[in-house]
Design brief:
- The protein has 490 residues and is of the alpha/beta class.
- It folds into four domains: 162 residues, Diaminopimelate Epimerase, Chain A, domain 1 (Roll); 99 residues, Beta Barrel (OB fold (Dihydrolipoamide Acetyltransferase, E2P)); 112 residues, no CATH class; 69 residues, Orthogonal Bundle (Arc Repressor Mutant, subunit A).
- Helix content is 34%, strand content 22%.
- It contains 15 helices and 19 strands.
- The strands form four sheets. It has a seven-stranded mixed β-sheet.
- Strand 14, helix 8 and strand 15 form a beta-alpha-beta unit.
Length: 490
Amino acid sequence: VGFSIAPRLNACGRLADASLAVRLLLAESPGEAQELADQIEKLNNERKDLTQATMQAAEAQIKSRGYQKEATLTLYDPAWHEGVMGLVANKIVEKYHKPTLMLTKNEAGLVKGSGRSSQGFNLFNALKPFEGKSITQFGGHDFACGLSTTEENLNQLRRDFNQSYKAGEKAPEKVQEYDGTISPLDVDLTSVYDLAQAGPFGTDNPQPVFLLDRPQISNFRPMRKGCSFMVGPVRAVDFDHGLNQTVLPYLRQMLVKLASNTFKGKTNVQFRIVDLHYGQSLYAPAARIVDFRGQENLLGFADKYLLFDERNLSQAMNHFGITKEQISLAKDNEDLSQQVVSVLDVPANEAQLNFVLAKPYRQLYLRFQLDQLPGETLPSRGNFGLVWQYFLAHPGLKPNDYMQAAGQLGMDPDSIMFILRVFFTLDFVKMEEDRLLPKPSPTKKSLDDSAYYRSVKAEYAFANKLRTISSDELIRYASGLANGGLQNVN
């Protein structure tokens, strides 16, 4: 019912008229029921296509506008379909682990949408104070809400939502309880059938979850939407955790549900992966320096997590779910001798990197995932031209007001702020009180005439080098075997 029937009945109200579902359930002849079922199946397929397309568009917006650095996500596009806002918000939360609002504009011109959260962050309590301010109408509960606002209030709502998260007592935590520990040798189809007697399972009667400790994995097979592999004599399937061959040696525990699977007329017991816990590999050699740049699901099993830039502190805590006490700042020069350390962000230059690499750690994991750069790439000269034309057309605004034009200019807000700062250092603009105005008859200059621009440009080049050189080259340099510095590593 939950995965097959209910979504189809639900699609009627999302995309058409809920009375279709009522008429189907009350149908008195097979012919009438079939006709209505065909209509509903078509709506459900349309719902799935809309959900997928909107999910892709939402992820593109997160990436292009730099929202991955935010504590919460407020996403808006007037072209999105109101009926799938809640579905996509739920998928965004599952993938990015951030409280999310998905908003669109209805035919009446009102901005409406849905919000979703996760354990540890009460969405209702966070947003209720803004009703009548940045939110027009609002209702919901701990984990979900519906709301409306106006386009003029969108940026204020985004700021309010972020601030509500930061003001919370703690970040959302993913907590997965389990009912017992099992061995793959102890389960068979009888186990599945016996457990089913405790059903039906749902919100108030969840399906039992079991822990597999130090699973012996073999026969790994990637699939279109996940992977499968053998744990002893039992096949396991995973659709949500991005498992690959590289991370398997670090997989220490699995939380699973028991299920059955029929293939080619044969039914076998199957594990459905619920959650995964990683740890130091029991099989791979314990290298002193480990390249974890490409492993989204692996943080590094560290005593301390190292940051070069203190501004990345809150993002590290929110993104990785670690505490402030677990984080060490490189500038504090804390004695981490013989400890396991994971480097989370990108140093500003080679000197900062070498300072850290020279320490006698027991083991060092290199991530280089976080930064304070204004976007994934340095804004182009075309971006500078767009912001300059917008600035000339709207002089005298506050800096944050120009950032609100991010969607209109097709740029992320941080890039707009960076460009305005470059203009300021080039003496193209001036600040009067808290507003930006053009300088009269500014002297023509190149972007490279700005020391600030050159500095950030160099940081981009250095970050790109760290993130793109091969693993062998990175380890060779980090181990002190490269002559002439990182710039000579190809």
